[in-house]
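Reference record
================
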Amino acid sequence: MIKISILSVLFAVVLIACDQPEPLAPKAQAIADLMTKLEAADLFNGIVLIAEKGEVSYKGVHGHRSFNPREPLKSDDAFRVGSISKPVTAVAIHMLAERGQLGYDDALSKFFPELPYDQVTIENLLSHTSGLYDVYQETEMRAAFYAFYDKLDPPYTNKDYLEYMIQYKPDLIGDPLEIDRYSNTGYVLLALIVEQVSGQRFDVFIREHIFEPAGMTRSGVYSLLEDRDVPYIVSSYRIDPEGEVQPTPDPNAPRSMYGLTYGDDELYTTVDDLLAFDQALRNGTLLKPASLNRMMKPPILADGSTARYGQGMSVQDINDIRYVTHTGSAWSFLAYWKSATPDNDHTVIVFSNVRSQRNTFRAVYTAINNILHNEAYDLSDLFGG
């Protein structure tokens, strides 16, 4: 009896020990402490995932997926991530190039003969060095676009955008490789090129050739959904000047002037799916090394300077550390992804569905990166210090 009792006690102790969570490593604990503090001060609402060499070291769920009624976020909730759609579009183009179905030097006019941009190439579109205007940024172009449709805030899509360009043929704002000017227009056209070359609708192509091979089970193109009432896609909110949380888009406001273009926008995904995409790029599941290198290598501009973007990702050196990243926003969603690279193997993913001030969100992911690289950070201004 005594032996049995001792064994029972030992077994119980083992069970209790197994139920205890593994302690976080110091950097992960510092990030966890920071995010908890930010959430308590209503300065962050969203999900953070940190991985090193593909292994998750921290995954924090902070705040709410809806506020009326209040419902907490779930770790596998999907967010609309805006321009993080662009790297997915870039991967689709690189895949088609690897198959010999298009070339990086192919002119835009090869795919759209009605457009007068013979000097603009696929490579220029990918790296934001095409000189094409961005209707979202150029107010005169936006006004002309609305006049083209003769109605306020039309929910236009890619083919509508192309029709406008064919009719008005707006001038380039600079020769290719003269400037690097971020252009949603380029990625709207790249998505149409994917459809034209592959013979598949854009969302079907990326699901079959990117999401499924990478193991991304909760990702898609929001504007191309037949039924957009997907229970695991969270709602977005903004904090108004009085500090109240308001839904976005405002249900009483006109339809979005930004339309429903895809390729440049409209991706929804989870932090786990984006990590799967990140690792599928690293391990060669999606692209050959040469293609991945193109994504992460900015071209040289005509004046000899280096552009800010590779053929699908933003690239910059901060404190002698190379960061390959992309950000995104849609309505009040904000998203940040730092891709793992051989010389900086941390993956950092930050999603938020509540917008207060953009620099608040930027300060948060900057602080996370600084913690990972033993750099100092100061968020006292966020806390009123």
In short: The radius of gyration is 23 Å. The first strand starts at residue 46 and ends at 52. The mean pLDDT is 89.
